[in-house]
TrEMBL record:
One of its GO terms (molecular function) is methyltransferase activity. InterPro entries: BHMT-like, HCY_dom, HCY_dom_sf. Signal peptide: none annotated. The lineage of its organism: Bacteria, Pseudomonadati, Pseudomonadota, Gammaproteobacteria, Vibrionales. It comes from Vibrio sinaloensis DSM 21326. Residues 1-294 form the Hcy-binding domain. Keywords: Metal-binding, Methyltransferase, Transferase, Zinc. This is Homocysteine S-methyltransferase family protein. The keyword Nucleotidyltransferase does not apply.
Length: 299
C-alpha cells in the first residue's frame, strides 16, 4: 500500500449506534445473525466517509462470543457471511475498496493469559478457510502477545494474500511501548522482522500510546533495512486494565472529538504510519476527517 491509506473504523460500536441488534456476549455477530443489512450499511458508511480498506465483521465469530454450541453449528457460515457482505459492498462502490479478512483473538480480547495454542488453532483455521476466497488482504487484529502473532503467522504462511498484523498495547506503560503481555514493541517488531509480514499495526488501544509504538517498530525495521508497512487505528475507550472481562459489560467510552483524533493521526503519520483508521468507537465521522486530511496532503 505504502502511500497513506485510510482504513475503516470500529464495526461493533457503530452497529450499536445505528440501532442494529447488539448485546453481550454476541457483540457484532448478532447483526450477522439477525440483521445482515445493518452490517452492509455500516460498511457503506465507512466507504462513503473515505475508507479505502474495510475489515470484515468476523471479529465475534469465535466461541468466546458465540458460545461453543452456536460456534460449532454456525461459526464458519457466519464468518463466510461477514466476508461476503464486505465483498459485495466493496464491489458495489464507485471507488476501489480493499476487503481485509478479520482474524480476531481466538480466546478473547486484551487477555494474553487466556490464549491457548491448541484451542486457538482450529478456531483460527476456520476463520481463515471461511474468508480466504473473498479477501484482498488479511488483518489479524488485537494481538496481545508474540505467541499469538507466531501462531497466526504460521497458519497464514500458506495463504497467498498479504498479511497485516495489528497489536494491542498496554494503555498505561511505564517508559517503553508494551504489548498487553508486557513484551516490548521492540521485541515484537524484531520477531515480526524475522518471520516476515506485509505490515505491523497497532490497534484497540488508547491513541496516546500508539506513537511510541510506531517509533519503536520503525527503528527495528530501519535498522534491519526491512520494508514492513506500519499502521495505527486506536479505540475511543477509557483505559483497559489487565483484568478486563470483555463479555461482562460494555467498555466505557471517552469523548474524543474528530479533531483530537486527527491530531493523534498526524503524529502517527509523522512517526512513519502509512495505514491509519479507527477501532472501537471510531465512527464514520472520524474516518471522514482522516480522508479529508489525506486529500489535503495531496494538494
Amino acid at each position: 500500500m505504502k502511500k497513506l491509506t485510510i482504513l475503516d473504523g470500529g464495526m461493533g460500536r457503530e452497529l450499536k449506534r445505528v440501532g442494529a441488534p447488539f448485546s453481550q456476549p454476541l457483540w457484532s455477530a448478532q447483526a450477522l445473525i439477525e440483521s445482515p443489512q445493518h452490517v452492509a450499511d455500516v460498511h457503506q458508511s465507512f466507504i462513503d466517509a473515505g475508507a479505502e480498506i474495510i475489515i470484515t465483521n468476523a471479529y465475534a465469530c469465535v466461541p468466546f462470543h458465540l458460545g461453543e454450541q452456536l460456534y460449532q453449528s454456525q461459526g464458519h457460515q457466519l464468518a463466510e457471511t461477514a466476508v461476503q457482505i464486505a465483498r459485495t459492498t466493496a464491489e458495489l462502490g464507485s471507488t476501489p475498496t480493499l476487503v481485509a479478512g478479520c482474524i480476531p483473538p481466538a480466546m478473547g480480547s486484551y487477555r494474553p493469559d487466556l490464549f491457548d495454542v491448541e484451542q486457538a488453532t482450529p478456531i483460527l483455521q476456520t476463520l481463515i478457510a471461511a474468508q480466504e476466497p473473498y479477501i484482498d488482504v488479511w488483518m489479524v487484529e488485537t494481538l496481545a502477545s508474540i505467541e499469538e502473532f507466531e501462531v497466526n503467522h504460521r497458519l497464514l504462511s500458506h495463504s497467498q494474500k498479504p498479511a497485516y498484523y495489528a497489536f494491542t498495547l498496554d494503555d498505561e506503560p511505564e517508559g517503553n511501548a508494551l504489548l498487553r503481555s508486557g513484551e516490548t514493541v521492540t521485541q515484537t517488531a524484531k520477531r515480526v522482522a524475522t518471520l516476515g509480514a506485509s505490515g505491523m499495526l497497532f490497534n484497540c488501544s488508547i491513541p496516546e500510546v500508539l506513537e511510541q509504538a510506531i517509533v519503536d517498530a520503525k527503528k527495528v525495521f530501519d535498522d534491519r533495512n526491512i520494508d514492513i508497512e506500519l499502521g495505527a487505528y486506536a479505540n475511543n475507550f477509557e483505559v483497559i486494565d489487565t483484568s478486563h472481562q470483555a463479555n461482562d459489560e460494555l467498555q466505557a467510552m471517552r469523548s474524543l472529538t474528530t479533531d483530537e483524533y486527527l491530531q493523534f493521526a498526524k503524529r502517527w503519520y509523522d512517526a512513519g504510519a502509512t495505514i491509519i483508521g479507527g477501532c472501537c468507537g471510531i465512527g464514520p465521522e472520524y474516518i471522514k476527517t482522516l480522508a479529508e486530511w489525506k486529500a489535503a496532503l495531496a494538494d
